[in-house]
């Protein structure tokens, strides 16, 4: 009872502090929310929407189960998750945060995986996409495309390492909730599962497409709200002075790993919002490039409270617990930082030590005509058009529920 009351007081004080800060710093709050909104409707929404819609259709038609049967011999021994986890991992790596959580939750709702398997899967299937690592971080912030190789290797190998470690999670509870039956990994058995799933799908194609669009846009609207909220909170914490105070504690952690304490504010900002944290880390001129890359790798792996809140909101729609995911993010942050240090010594210093530093920006990554450029240019148009379609479908379902 006492613990519950203390929690109530802390939550009330926190919300009150945010409200007072909004009143005290209105211009800064507007600037931060605008920054978050631009990021959402230019990059996040148009880049994630196709993956979300296609994944919903693939699950409905049984293609995911088809892939799952074929990948069972790989995913089960390595990660102790069904073969469908291979689909979630691949889609999560291609589309970025928080796609892995979205697809995992969808499979859990379909009862294709158990709760323990879902908690294992979500812990290593949420990744930053290559476009963000190479385009935004390495080229946009560090102005050095070669760093993207180090960050990508550290990030994705770190995720796989986390998956290998999380295979030991929930061993005692696993026997109580076996969902998937073991099948022979043959094309015949995979096709049989595909056909059975398609035949059991009662929704016509039009309804399936409509549901996929509705579900995807609702998730993306939620993601946009969290991006804007945490962008504002991060900015307010800095102006109130809390960032500087709490960053002192991170200085001790950085000193233990022989990293410069001057990166503490960037690291603290990255704990809340990874984009701002990486940008601030790249702008610290008094430390070595290696130290900045190590901290940036840790920030990418932890993914910030903003992304974690998005994941928590998605998982709340199921019985999947958030704590394993949070624990895995902490492990991933340390492992990714270690991998960044190793790859820096093995790859960067040996391969590029005789090259002159180059600030040239590759056109295919970040220049005019690149995917990133196209998203920034046409992303808002795609977002607005998609929202209009969403409103049309929603209005039709409300006022014409039977299609008449």
Automatic annotation (TrEMBL):
<feature type="domain" description="Nucleoside transporter/FeoB GTPase Gate">
    <location>
        <begin position="220"/>
        <end position="316"/>
    </location>
</feature>
<protein>
    <submittedName>
        <fullName>Sporulation integral membrane protein YlbJ</fullName>
    </submittedName>
</protein>
<keyword id="KW-0812">Transmembrane</keyword>
<dbReference type="InterPro" id="IPR011642">
    <property type="entry name" value="Gate_dom"/>
</dbReference>
<feature type="transmembrane region" description="Helical">
    <location>
        <begin position="48"/>
        <end position="71"/>
    </location>
</feature>
<dbReference type="InterPro" id="IPR014226">
    <property type="entry name" value="Spore_IM_YlbJ"/>
</dbReference>
<feature type="transmembrane region" description="Helical">
    <location>
        <begin position="293"/>
        <end position="314"/>
    </location>
</feature>
<dbReference type="Pfam" id="PF07670">
    <property type="entry name" value="Gate"/>
</dbReference>
<feature type="transmembrane region" description="Helical">
    <location>
        <begin position="378"/>
        <end position="395"/>
    </location>
</feature>
<keyword id="KW-1133">Transmembrane helix</keyword>
<feature type="transmembrane region" description="Helical">
    <location>
        <begin position="147"/>
        <end position="166"/>
    </location>
</feature>
<feature type="domain" description="Nucleoside transporter/FeoB GTPase Gate">
    <location>
        <begin position="44"/>
        <end position="133"/>
    </location>
</feature>
<keyword id="KW-0472">Membrane</keyword>
<feature type="transmembrane region" description="Helical">
    <location>
        <begin position="326"/>
        <end position="347"/>
    </location>
</feature>
<feature type="transmembrane region" description="Helical">
    <location>
        <begin position="121"/>
        <end position="141"/>
    </location>
</feature>
């Amino acid at each position: 009872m006492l613990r519950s009351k203390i929690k109530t007081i802390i939550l009330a004080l926190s919300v009150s502090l945010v409200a007072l800060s909004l009143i005290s710093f209105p211009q800064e709050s507007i600037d931060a929310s605008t920054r978050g909104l631009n990021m959402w409707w230019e990059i996040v929404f148009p880049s994630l929407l196709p993956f979300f819609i296609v994944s919903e259709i693939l699950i409905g038609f049984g293609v995911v189960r088809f892939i799952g049967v074929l990948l069972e011999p790989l995913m089960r021994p390595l990660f102790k998750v069904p073969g469908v986890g291979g689909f979630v991992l691949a889609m999560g790596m291609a589309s970025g945060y928080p796609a892995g959580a979205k697809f995992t939750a969808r499979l859990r709702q379909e009862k294709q995986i158990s709760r323990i398997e879902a908690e294992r899967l979500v812990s290593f299937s949420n990744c930053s996409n290559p476009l963000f690592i190479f385009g935004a971080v390495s080229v946009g912030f560090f102005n050095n495309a070669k760093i993207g190789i180090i960050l990508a290797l550290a990030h994705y190998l770190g995720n796989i390492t986390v998956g290998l470690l999380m295979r030991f999670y929930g061993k005692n509870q696993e026997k109580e909730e076996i969902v998937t039956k073991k099948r022979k990994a043959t094309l015949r058995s995979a096709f049989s599962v595909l056909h059975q799933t398609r035949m059991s799908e009662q929704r016509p194609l039009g309804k399936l497409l409509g549901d996929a669009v509705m579900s995807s846009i609702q998730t993306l609207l939620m993601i946009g709200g969290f991006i804007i909220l945490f962008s504002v909170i991060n900015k307010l914490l800095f102006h109130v002075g809390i960032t500087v105070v709490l960053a002192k504690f991170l200085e001790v952690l950085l000193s233990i790993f022989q990293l410069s304490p001057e990166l503490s504010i960037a690291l603290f900002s990255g704990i809340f919002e990874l984009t701002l944290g990486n940008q601030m880390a790249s702008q610290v001129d008094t430390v070595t490039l290696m130290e900045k890359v190590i901290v940036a790798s840790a920030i990418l792996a932890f993914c910030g409270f903003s992304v974690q809140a998005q994941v928590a909101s998605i998982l709340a729609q199921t019985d999947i617990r958030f704590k394993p995911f949070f624990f895995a993010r902490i492990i991933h942050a340390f492992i990714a930082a270690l991998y960044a240090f190793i790859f820096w010594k093995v790859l960067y210093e040996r391969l590029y030590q005789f090259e002159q530093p180059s600030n040239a920006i590759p056109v295919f990554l970040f220049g005019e005509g690149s995917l990133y450029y196209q998203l920034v240019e046409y992303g808002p148009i795609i977002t607005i058009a998609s929202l209009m379609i969403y409103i049309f479908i929603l209005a039709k379902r409300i006022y014409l529920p039977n299609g008449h």
